[in-house]
Amino acid sequence: MKSSRRKGEIQHGFPGKFKTYKKVGFKEVPDLSTEEKQAELLEKMKPWSYDPKKIKPKFSMMAKAVSGTTGPVPSPTPTPTNVTPTPTPSSTVTPTPTTTVTPTPTTTVTPTVTPTSTLTPTPTPSATPLPACDLTYEEVASFDADAQSYIDALVGAGMTVTSTISGATNTLFTSLKTGNIYNKIFALYPFLGTTAASQKFNAVDPRDLDAAYRLQFFGTVVHSTSGMKGNGVNAYASTNLVPVNDFAIGDIHASFEKYYSQAGGDPHDYGAKNTTNSLRWRSETERQTTAEFIQYYMNENGAGGSTVVQTTNVTPRAGYFYQGYDGSTAVIDYDNGTDRVTKANMVPNTTAFALASNDITLMARNGTGGTPDNGTYSAAGYSHFSFGEHLTQTEATTLYNSINTFNTAIGR
Amino acid sequence: MNVALLTVHEKDLLVGQLYDIDSYFNPVQDCNDNWIITEGEINHNIYPEFDWIEQLPLIEWCAPPPEDEK
After folding, report:
1. How much is the ipTM here?
2. Domain segments of chain A as ranges
């Protein structure tokens, strides 16, 4: 029912077919007592009695009600097919045989009661109270903030940093810190990504500034997932690390790993030379008359004075190199993580010279004019460089293990 | 390996200039004291003002002798 727009009218029906009714007043009814109203209603009601011959029960509830017995659920009454109904006079009711229901004995189940053992709880005084809910929590290892800064710089340079790389980077930073060598490293170049923009960062200070020892690339440097590679012609990287300003005399180290080595010529892994052409810090592979040498000069006076020289008569090859000098006769020289106890052609020097005043260049030796000396460009490939304070043998081993784990984790 | 030959004036135009993001030209001298740049610098140059390097003549690279620093 819904209200009509016109006052006093109502509509009744269903959508699309309403009928409108108008209130006309109250119906006149006789003033009867309650008993009289009931008697009048009973008289108007049609008398009804149950005749089982006329009413055919179809369902068990009705059957039960009719027969007063219980029985199984009868199958649906089949509907005959292909039967032509015989016209039956409408006024005549043809009795339908009543379905005979055969009661099925009810199985009586006697439940077997199994005694339940009574458990007496034993209080455990030392038990830790459980939390109010079923959830358990495990502390999540925090990501190293410095590793995160480096990763942020890589992402800012457009590099896609995978979970593998970020995890390996975090492990690298935490292991360097656990080994107490993180603060002894001034510059660490892991060469992540495949562009100059991402490989330029010093991981321990990833600001895009010369003061942070951010790299600048010159010539044709090849950037790949393996690292950074020179071309032996004009490719190098400037570190902005100036030994005389950024290092203490007799307290220096350098490490690097080559994934590709170059034979012949005079290629340098890194180097810096004073403007007076007398003081140097460099590492090189050099072909001499009959053999090639891997050698480095941590405290060299090129004018012919005393030098500290480490030379090994081995064929140039790829691998990990660590070169450290503490200002005494002790030179730590790790070759693929193993200390070379016997140092061929070593010339100790206890007089530490001043360090070079040109910045260290990678893949070439920086010259007196502020650019690399011609003929010192390397075509080797490098997966990392580090520069910093002198490290003990234990610390140098930690550095080697940390770098090796990192490179292995990222598939180098 | 081929390299691109530069005049002294062209070399001066390229020194200190970027050819790509974070990558600088680096003219060097070969065994004959010719100034050269590599084909990599030419191929990766992204700055139109240096498009002229694509017209440079190519010569065979001749490595200079190592400097005696001993």
Report:
1. 0.96
2. 145-409
